Structure formats: C-alpha cells, structure tokens
Amino acid sequence: MNRFVLALSTTAFCVSAVAQTAGVVIKADGDCPAGYDRMIFVTRSGFVLAEHYSGSFLEGHRIFGNLHSYGFKNVRVNDSGARIYIEDYMTSKDRAIEWCFGDEDE
User: Fold this and answer.
1) Residue 54 burial (CB < 10 Å; 0-12/13-18/19+)?
2) Which of 37, 68, 87, 96 has its CA 20 to 30 A from that of 30?
3) pTM for this prediction
C-alpha cells in the first residue's frame, strides 16, 4: 500500500511540474495603452498575452504557472498568488506589440 501511495504521489508531482512554466513580466497591468488590464510575459517558448484579474505584477517579476494554455489561471508571482486570463500564448514579439499598443477592439 505504501508503494502505491508513493507512486501516486510521485506521478501527481511529475504531472503538476510539467504544467508549470516560468516567465518574466515585460509589460505589467497598466503598461499597455490598448487596455489597462493587459500584460505581456515572456517564456522560453514565446510571448504570453494575458489580462490581470488579481495580484500584483511589476515589470521584471518572475511568474510561474500553466502559462501555455488559454483561459483563467492561478499563478505565482514573486511568491504571491495571482489570477490572470490568458488570451494567447507562444506568440511572436510582433503580435505581442500589436496586442499591447494596438486597438482595444481586437
């Protein structure tokens, strides 16, 4: 029984570790003229376009969570909890600039 619990715990840890992505805030909430709640993070796989719902985000903060899928996410930002909505991920720099500085009606 103990082996089963250990195996199950190890499997759960590995699955949650795979879903976690690290990124850095490059445009915090309030920095994008196209929308006050828009933010941009950069990860190893590209740019993440998100909207702020709760928590504190400043340029240069490290963010951890499931950043490579759409929708609402609970994330960690510099050891604090936060909530975001991911609009797009693994996107290009040009798309990120357009989303941050372009029209609000996109």
Assistant:
1) exposed
2) 68
3) 0.77
CB 66 within 8 A of CB 20: yes
58: tokens are 């400043």
| CA nearest to 42, candidates 103, 97, 5 | 97
Contact 41, 23 (CB under 8 A): yes
Closest CA to 52 of 76, 36, 71: 36
pLDDT tens string, the chain, 106 residues long: the values are 555 444 444 444 444 445 689 999 999 988 999 888 999 999 999 999 999 999 989 999 999 999 999 999 999 999 899 999 999 999 999 999 999 998 644 4
Please, what sign has the CA dihedral across residues 71, 51, 26, 28?
A: negative
Beta-carbon count within 10 A of 100 CB: 19
